[in-house]
Structures are given as C-alpha cells and as structure tokens.
C-alpha cells in the first residue's frame, strides 16, 4: 500500500480518482462499506480508489480536554486498512490550521490535484471543514459544480443496532467485547508499544511487558487471558489492566501489562497487537508480594488450560 501525506500527491496517481473519505476510527463495518463501495465503483471504470483519512483524530485537536478514547491509533488503522486490500491511502495531518479550512476550499483542493476527480464516497453523517459546516448535502452541491459524483453510504446495522465508533467504544468500555466484535466485523484489538517499567514482575518470577496503548479504548479493569501478535507471530499471555494496588506507590496510574507465556525475548519499544480473550478475575490488593505471586501462578495455570482447550 502506498501512503500519501499531502493532497498535492494525488496528482501523481492515474485518474479518474475515487475517494473514500472519513476518520475511520475502528475501521468498522460502516467504514468498510464506504471503502469497499468506493473501490468497487473505481474498478468498474478502471479508476484509482484512494482512502482519505486524518491524523490525529479531529476530536483530539478540536476538543482535547473532552476527546474520546480512540478505537484504533493511526498505525493500527493503517494496518487494518491495508488488510482490506487498499492500494492508496492519503493521511492528512489534522491541526488547527487544517480545521479552519472552509469546506468549499477543501473540496477545491481535492479537485485541483485529481486527474480527474470522479467520485467522493462518505458516510451519511460525515461533516467536514471549518465549524463542521460541510455535510453530505453541501458535498452534493459541490459535486454538481465540479462534476464529480457523490455517494453517501446509509447506516449499517447489526442485530438492529446502528454501527458507529461511539457504540463500539461504549461496548468495549462495558466489557461487551462480543458486541464490539459484531459491529467491527473482527475481534477488538489494541496496538500497544512496549515501554520501560519497574521490573517488579521479574522479582516475583513473572516478568511483564508494559504497553503504552496510544489512548485506545480499554475494557474494564481486571486480569485477562489474552492473545498477542508480535512481528506477526501469535503468542498467549495473562494481562493485568488497572492500578496494581499491591505494588503501586504515589498517584494511581492505570497500567496495561502482559506476562507472555514461554517467552524470553527483549521486545522493548516494539508494537504488540493485543486481544482480550477471556476475563479471568477482578484486580485486587494482596497482603504481600508472595500472595500476589501465588495468585499470578494460578492465573497462568488457567491461561495454559485455555490455550490447551
């Protein structure tokens, strides 16, 4: 997949261009419908489909103190879009300057750098431009002016529920990972980068890798049996998500850490894609490190049984 980082780079692609535009946080079934429809229309006339998205999530720029957790950090989103077979991805840097762009000017830039622009495909509620003044109705008017088609994808529903990033985020937060998976069209995973920790796990015989999860949405605190992909290889482990009440000092800090079964390599600074497979127990405070170690040993035994099953 070729990744572009400026609208002007569209001019290097053979036309006609078909653009699927959106934030695409989660790359869920609704987003997949936008992307696949655009690709299908492009291929029917030997055109070039391009997925257009933004980094970071606009809410982090427009309302940083009230921005939701994301379902997919940018690197994770890129990987998921690549897995859909997308050949061209344009990632536009979303900052205050870009947010101030009038919707008409944004579309004019797309038209000016496409040879030519044949179609824009978006979700039915997509908004864009300064003060989010652009919507599907305005986009259709601009399409008539600049002679490109506009496709608005209607809501996608699963079991009577409209698929949306907000609905998926709420399901994950509530621990309903099955519902989240139904709306995503895949199991919910997060992408974390291994960071340095206090190495307390080594001291009690269960070394862990601390994961910085790039503001992705977590399920409820607790201990989980988990799957972890490292360099494309599947591993299993026990995850602790929470405040580590037995060993924490100072201000409480929510930490995501995983003990990988039968794993010895140093993976500091590497990315790990993590899936919460089974909730094992709530997090709790133990009277001593020995008591904590005994409980972790039980957690690991349960994880091995789940692997065998």
The shape, in one word, is elongated
Number of helices: 10
Task: Say what the CATH topology of the largest domain is.
Answer: Rossmann fold
Question: What is the CATH-assigned architecture of the largest domain?
Answer: 3-Layer(aba) Sandwich
Average pLDDT across residues? Answer: 94
Rg estimate, integer Å? 22 Å
Structural class: alpha/beta
In a nutshell, what does this entry contain?
This protein is α/β, with parallel strands linked by helices and 309 residues long. It contains ten helices and 14 strands. The strands form three sheets. The protein has a six-stranded parallel β-sheet, with helices on both faces.
Pick out its properties:
Rossmann fold; 309 residues; six-stranded antiparallel β-barrel; alpha/beta; Elongation Factor Tu (Ef-tu), domain 3; six-stranded parallel beta sheet
What does this entry look like structurally?
The protein has ten helices and 14 strands. With 309 residues, it is α/β, with parallel strands linked by helices. It folds into two domains: 2-162, Rossmann fold; 189-308, Elongation Factor Tu (Ef-tu), domain 3. The strands form three sheets. Strands 1-4-3-2-5-6 form a six-stranded parallel β-sheet, sandwiched between helices. The protein has a six-stranded antiparallel beta barrel with strand order 9-10-13-12-11-14. Helix 1 (29-44) links the parallel strand 2 and strand 3 (48-55). The chain is elongated and about 70 Å long. It starts with a strand and ends with a helix. The mean pLDDT is 94.
């Amino acid at each position: 997949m070729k990744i572009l980082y400026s609208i002007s780079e569209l001019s290097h692609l053979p036309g006609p261009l078909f653009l699927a535009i959106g934030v695409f946080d989660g790359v869920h079934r609704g987003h997949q419908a936008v992307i696949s429809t655009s690709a299908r229309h492009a291929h029917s006339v030997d055109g070039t489909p391009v997925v257009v998205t933004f980094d970071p999530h606009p809410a982090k720029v427009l309302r940083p103190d009230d921005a939701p957790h994301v379902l997919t950090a940018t690197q994770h989103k890129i990987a998921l879009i690549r897995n859909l077979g997308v050949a061209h991805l344009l990632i536009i840097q979303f900052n205050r300057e870009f947010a101030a762009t009038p919707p008409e000017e944004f579309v004019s830039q797309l038209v000016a750098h496409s040879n030519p622009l044949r179609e824009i495909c978006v979700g039915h509620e997509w908004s864009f431009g300064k003060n989010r003044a652009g919507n599907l109705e305005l986009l259709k008017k601009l399409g008539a002016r600049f002679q490109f088609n506009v496709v608005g994808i209607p809501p996608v529903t699963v079991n009577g529920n409209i698929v949306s990033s907000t609905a998926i985020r709420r399901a994950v937060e509530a621990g309903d990972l099955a519902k989240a998976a139904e709306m995503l069209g895949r199991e919910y995973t997060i992408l974390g980068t291994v960071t340095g920790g206090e190495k307390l796990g080594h001291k009690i015989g269960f070394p862990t890798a601390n994961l910085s999860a790039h503001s992705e949405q977590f399920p409820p605190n607790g201990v989980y049996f988990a799957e972890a992909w490292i360099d494309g290889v599947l591993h299993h482990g026990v995850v602790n998500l929470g405040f580590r009440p037995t060993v924490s000092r100072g201000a409480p800090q929510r930490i995501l850490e995983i003990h990988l079964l039968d794993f010895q390599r140093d993976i500091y600074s590497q990315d790990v894609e993590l899936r919460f497979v089974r909730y094992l127990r709530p997090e709790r405070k133990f009277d001593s490190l020995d008591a904590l170690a005994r409980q972790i040993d039980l957690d690991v035994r349960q994880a091995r049984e789940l692997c065998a099953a």
